[in-house]
Structure formats: structure tokens, C-alpha cells
Structure to design on (298 residues):
């Protein structure tokens, strides 16, 4: 009889979870800005994935020069104009989306994979290892992230790969500190102590009981971090410490077009606007998810 009661409670809990999930989806669908941001992100991601098929001049998008049509203003042949090497700006912008979107994803996902387990350990455990993790996090957070990334890029050599690594290194401590604080606030609750009394191992308690209960702030932080990660990639490229020519990168394209922005404005404005739209879309989506998952926290 008691077992049947537990099964009934479990079924009711699962049903309540499903109803809550569909309720959140309906609320999300009513947010026009959120739906628009998802549409923009989906469109830009698909364009980046299928760049060779979508770009009107794929070879120019990859860096091939066409000096006979250099510095042409937007026209029917080149909807967004051409750059100083005669390359189609629309094709270059589409190819540049690959670096910004997938670079931002790499930075945030790798930072989560490094920072979350360390935060779980530092928050749940006590002793020298936890104290060492906390000390390293505090030391790294005491330096400006972009300056630290610039220094790493200079030492390792400028490239897309080194720019990603240079940004992951100062990025993961933010997740470690977030998760550590969340874990410390719930590790003495009844469900955690019950799991410990039943003899479950530390890893099982951390990943089966603690992690699911702190996922909401981690997800919100991830969504809000995509925009800054994209800007950071563009900044390193703008400074010559990221992606190198002839690869298409929005930050590099803005840097190339900045000196002649009054005469050939489209060279810098087109990739700059693309980056602005992508970052705003991620921020709007992140703010909406935060409002839905953490009501009353804004």
C-alpha cells in the first residue's frame, strides 16, 4: 500500500512538471521580443551553417579577391557592397557569422564544462582542494577578463584557436563562483542530507541531487554570456589578436573598414550591425528566460 502511495506521488509530481513546462512555453510564446530573437538567432545560425549555399559569392566569403570590383557601394550585383579587395560584403558577413556564433558557443560551453564541476566540488566539499579552487577563482577574477585574454593571445600567437582558449581561461571562474555559492546555499537541506545518510557517494550527490537544483541560474548565465563572448571575440580580432586574414571575422572587418568609414561606410557598418543584431538577440532571449525561470529576481 505504501509503495502504491509513493508511485502515485511520483506520477503526480511528473504530471505537475509537465504542466509547468508547457505553462512556461506558453508564456514564452506570448513574448513577441523573445520569439523575434529566436527567429533572428535561428536565421543567422542557419546562414552560418549553410554559408557555402547561402552566400552569393562563396569564394569571396572565404577570402578570394576580386580587385576589379573593389570598394563598390551597395548595388544589385553586391547588395551590401564590396571591400578593399573587391570581396562581396554580404558573403563575407555570412561567413563571419560562423566565427562569431560558433566561437561564442565554444567559449560559453567550455567555460561551463570547466567551471560547473569545480564549483560543485568547492561548494560541497571542504578542505584544502576546495580552498585552492576558491583562491584560484578569486585571483583570476581580480584581473580584467579582456586584458588577461589579450595577454594570453600575445604570448600564444594570434589566431582563432588561441583567441578562443584565451577567452575560456578567464571565463570559467565566473561559473565556478556562481555554482559554489548556489551549492553552499542548499547543501544542508533535507534532501541532500537524506542522500548522504543513504550512503550515496559524493559524486552521485553532487551530480544527481545538487546539480539539477542549481541549473536554472547556470542556464540564465549561459544565455546572457553569449553576447559578451561574441563581443570579446570581435574585440580580439579588431585588435589583431584573433582571427587572421583572409578569414572572415566581423571584428576584423570592422577594423579594416574603420579608417575609411566616412567614404566607404558599408565596409565597417555592415559587420558591425550584424554583430549588434546578434548580441541584442541573445540578450533579449536571455532576459526573457531569466524572467520566466527566476520570477521576482530581476
Amino acid at each position: 500500500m505504501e509503495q502504491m502511495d509513493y508511485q502515485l506521488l511520483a506520477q503526480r509530481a511528473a504530471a505537475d512538471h509537465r504542466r509547468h513546462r508547457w505553462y512556461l512555453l506558453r508564456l514564452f510564446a506570448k513574448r513577441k521580443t523573445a520569439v523575434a530573437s529566436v527567429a533572428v538567432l535561428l536565421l543567422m545560425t542557419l546562414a552560418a551553417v549553410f554559408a557555402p549555399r547561402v552566400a552569393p559569392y562563396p569564394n569571396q566569403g572565404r577570402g578570394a579577391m576580386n580587385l576589379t570590383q573593389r570598394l563598390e557601394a551597395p548595388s544589385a550585383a553586391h547588395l551590401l557592397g564590396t571591400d578593399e579587395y573587391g570581396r562581396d560584403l554580404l558573403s563575407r558577413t555570412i561567413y563571419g557569422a560562423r566565427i562569431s556564433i560558433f566561437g561564442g558557443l565554444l567559449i560559453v560551453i567550455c567555460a561551463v564544462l570547466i567551471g560547473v564541476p569545480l564549483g560543485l566540488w568547492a561548494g560541497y566539499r571542504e578542505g584544502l582542494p576546495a580552498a585552492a579552487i576558491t583562491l584560484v577563482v578569486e585571483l583570476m577574477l581580480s584581473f580584467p577578463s579582456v586584458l588577461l585574454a589579450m595577454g594570453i593571445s600575445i604570448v600564444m600567437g594570434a589566431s582563432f584557436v588561441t583567441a578562443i582558449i584565451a577567452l575560456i581561461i578567464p571565463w570559467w571562474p565566473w561559473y565556478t563562483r556562481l555554482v559554489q555559492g548556489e551549492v553552499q546555499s542548499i547543501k544542508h537541506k533535507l534532501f541532500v542530507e537524506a542522500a548522504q545518510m543513504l550512503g550515496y557517494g559524493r559524486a552521485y550527490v553532487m551530480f544527481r541531487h545538487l546539480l539539477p537544483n542549481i541549473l536554472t541560474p547556470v542556464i540564465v548565465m549561459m544565455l546572457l554570456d553569449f553576447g559578451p563572448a561574441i563581443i570579446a571575440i570581435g574585440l580580439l580580432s579588431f585588435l589583431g589578436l584573433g582571427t587572421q586574414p583572409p578569414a572572415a571575422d566581423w571584428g576584423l572587418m570592422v577594423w579594416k573598414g574603420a579608417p575609411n568609414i566616412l567614404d566607404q561606410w558599408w565596409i565597417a557598418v555592415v559587420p558591425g550591425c550584424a554583430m549588434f543584431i546578434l548580441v541584442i538577440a541573445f540578450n533579449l532571449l536571455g532576459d526573457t528566460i531569466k524572467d520566466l525561470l527566476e520570477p521576482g529576481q530581476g
Remarks:
- The chain has a mean pLDDT of 85.
